[in-house]
Write a structure and sequence with these properties.
- Helix 3 (about 55-80) runs parallel beside helix 7 (about 125-145).
- This protein folds into 2 domains: about 20-155, no CATH class; about 175-290, Four Helix Bundle (Hemerythrin (Met), subunit A).
- The chain contains 14 helices and no strands.
- The radius of gyration is 19 Å and the shape is globular.
- The protein is mainly α.
- The chain has helices at about 20-30, 35-50, 55-80, 80-90, 95, 100-120, 125-145, 155-165, 180-195, 200-205, 210-215, 215-235, 245-260, 270-290.
- Helix content is about 70%, strand content about 0%.
Length: about 290
């Protein structure tokens, strides 16, 4: 796909004269933070904290730290991608559409990152350090690794460490069981491959050559499905005790969902991945409570 030769100038991006009011600025920032993935990851962390026994205060503290980290990552991502988004004409992105300014997004990302530090460390020094490593991995993806063959690695690290952030905040600071870490890493890596599917051609046109772009849409979609299915299988078979009827049903439903959404256009595979992740969280709650 050829790159458009004319890059829109910043002053052409605003559809209406004058500066947006406070409500417009907030709306633009909300759209630029990748709200759906941020809410999904924050909800997963909060549910896991409740299931692990941290109680409502601990779950709220966990959710606050994860939300701050996710907001910083989302805003960093849109700001880092601005030039490429302008080149490909991504009018659905607030920075390109002019509903958010680069300076505002930069300030928001920095503020969220600063807030993430004390919120993370409030769960304990080790727990906080683990979460900050996960956030650092996500920023490394945005700023450098997304265009390399190890583009999947920050997702595996960030998602794989999320359960550790939760459990290390418990009395005695226990590490999570290996099956839980593996399942989280698999679902995160699968989400990476599914998330880039709609943008592979634009990515290649602007020099983004992560592993999914190198593999191509068909193989990346297949790999995303296998990774998500593997995550569900680990959650079903990993914990001690007999597999529940819900677990077997979820495994079958996951396979069917991935089969039906394979090759579908747009963000359908990514949304299917989020749906499977939500079902996995439900299974996890059942297994942790016996």
């Amino acid at each position: 796909m050829p790159v458009r030769s004319a890059v829109p100038q910043p002053q052409s991006r605003a559809a209406s004269p004058g500066r947006p009011g406070a409500a417009g600025v907030l709306a633009g920032l909300a759209g630029a933070c990748h709200p759906l993935p941020a809410a999904a990851v924050t909800g997963f962390a909060a549910a896991l904290a409740v299931a692990a026994g941290r109680g409502l205060p601990g779950a709220a503290l966990t959710a606050g730290a994860v939300a701050a980290g996710q907001l910083s990552v989302g805003w960093c991502n849109d700001r880092a991608d601005l030039r490429r988004d302008l080149t490909t004409g991504r009018r659905d992105k607030p920075l390109v559409a002019g509903t958010a300014s680069p300076a505002a997004v930069t300030r928001a990302a920095a503020l969220a990152l600063l807030l993430c530090v004390p919120l993370s460390l409030a769960s304990g020094l080790l727990a906080g350090a683990v979460h900050l490593v996960a956030v650092t991995a996500a920023w490394a993806y945005n700023l450098r690794l997304k265009s390399t063959a190890v583009s999947w690695l920050p997702y595996a690290v960030a998602f794989g460490l999320l359960p550790a952030f939760v459990t290390l905040g418990l009395p005695g600071a226990p590490w999570p069981p290996p099956w839980l870490t593996a399942a989280a890493a698999l679902i995160g890596t699968g989400a990476h491959f599914a998330n880039v599917l709609p943008d592979i051609e634009d990515d290649l046109a602007t020099g983004v050559t992560g592993l999914p772009q190198r593999l191509g849409a068909r193989r990346s979609a297949a790999l995303a499905g296998l990774l998500v299915l593997g995550s569900t299988a680990v959650l079903v078979a990993g914990p001690p005790g007999a597999v529940t009827a819900y677990g077997w049903g979820l495994l079958a439903a996951t396979a069917l969902t991935l089969l039906l959404t394979a090759g579908r256009p747009g963000r359908v595979p990514f949304l299917a991945t989020l749906a499977v992740a939500g079902a996995d969280v439900t299974l996890l709650l059942f297994r942790l409570h016996g």
